[in-house]
Amino acid sequence: xxxxxxxxxxxxxxxxxxxxxxxxxxxxxxxxxxxxxxxxxxxxxxxxxxxxxxxxxxxxxxxxxxxxxxxxxxxxxxxxxxxxxxxxxxxxxxxxxxxxxxxxxxxxxxxxxxxxxxxxxxxxxxxxxxxxxxxxxxxxxxxxxxxxxxxxxxxxxxxxxxxxxxxxxxxxxxxxxxxxxxxxxxxxxxxxxxxxxxxxxxxxxxxxxxxxxxxxxxxxxxxxxxxxxxxxxxxxxxxxxxxxxxxxxxxxxxxxxxxxxxxxxxxxxxxxxxxxxxxxxxxxxxxxxxxxxxxxxxxxxxxxxxxxxxxxxxxxxxxxxxxxxxxxxxxxxxxxxxxxxxxxxxxxxxxxxxxxxxxxxxxxxxxxxxxxxxxxxxxxxxxxxxxxxxxxxxxxxxxxxxxxxxxxxxxxxxxxxxxxxxxxxxxxxxxxxxxxxxxxxxxxxxx
Length: 447
Description:
The protein has about 450 residues and is an alpha+beta fold. The chain folds into two domains: about 10-110, Ubiquitin-like (UB roll) (Roll); about 115-435, Creatine Kinase, Chain A, domain 2 (2-Layer Sandwich). It is built from 13 helices and 18 strands. It has helices at about 10-15, 45-50, 110-125, 165-180, 205-225, 270-290, 295-300, 345-360, 380-385, 395-405, 405-410, 415-430, 435-445, and strands at about 20-30, 35-40, 50-55, 70-75, 80, 90-100, 130-145, 145-150, 185-190, 195-200, 200-205, 225-230, 245-250, 255, 310, 320, 335, 390. Strands 7, 8, 9, 10, 11, 12, 13, 14, 15, 16, 17 and 18 form a twelve-stranded mixed beta sheet that branches. α8 crosses α11 (about 405-410). The longest helix has 21 residues, at about 205-225. It is globular, with a radius of gyration of 22 Å.
């Protein structure tokens, strides 16, 4: 689809042109998982007008059983044909939806609505929040029809000779284009079987829609090639995990508010306040940006993932990095938060990231001294000298920090905040009660 549609009428006209017979109405649960209900295309006009009913009590983190009636209202700007469901009998389209309660009000636990609230706060201050996430992923082979962590190739970063997934990535890029997602670059990543596809930077809501779409598209294309695409943060011990570095900037009146050509970092005071806000709140945000037990096996020294809460101009061991900024390209000025991983709910991650940055701006927080040295080489004395602290070391540690975060509670709302914490604590409890193969190998014969 070449042009983005903006109205219900335009979509209904396009549905006729595209011979669409079915429409997948998609929405996102509390943990970023795409949910779907399919309706006949003849009912789409009614869905635009009055919404499509579903049982919210059956969705993780949504309504209680006695308040289960909820409605989906499609966003016309998200219309796309699902290419692998094309048929001579009629095609299937996709629309991302907002969630409403039975009384017609936006559902406060809808991740898309939560992001919209914080974007409205930025808009009231005169700013547009732009993001560009870099989603890494692994491609695994199946053995005897069963899924296991067997890398598809033995290639490395930007490799060609051992990269056997070029055709797969190209197919993924073409398919993403059919969803209106403009791919900028695609390449092999550092670890065997690991890849990255980057798409265009843009307004945060559209970017969150695109990134969430990308996750299910890549899985579908991989399946077509007999492979499995996973965004699990650390599927294989001993090699790099999968991150989602997020580039961010604020624009005001069409100009990049992060740029200041007179500053040594080419960063404005607003940008530094924004950085300081994120550094201040990152521990409380971690259960959102790095939401699984497995996330914290990625956030460990030695695997190009951040551990220390710091910022720097070029240092890739820092939590927030300032990519090279050219004075002749001020609109490209941005900062890069390196701790999120693609298992997160991207809408919630963007929401807490923006809220933390705005808090830094409102309170004029100043960031600590930037650290350009390799933090992984620092001992405790050097870390103390620069007043560098660490990210949570486990999901349980992250839960403890989130419980203390008034900012995250404000972003999610009290009810969703509690549901999220309860679910993550249950996940941690389930994990800690498991007896792993490592424990059997280590202790079974010894004790």
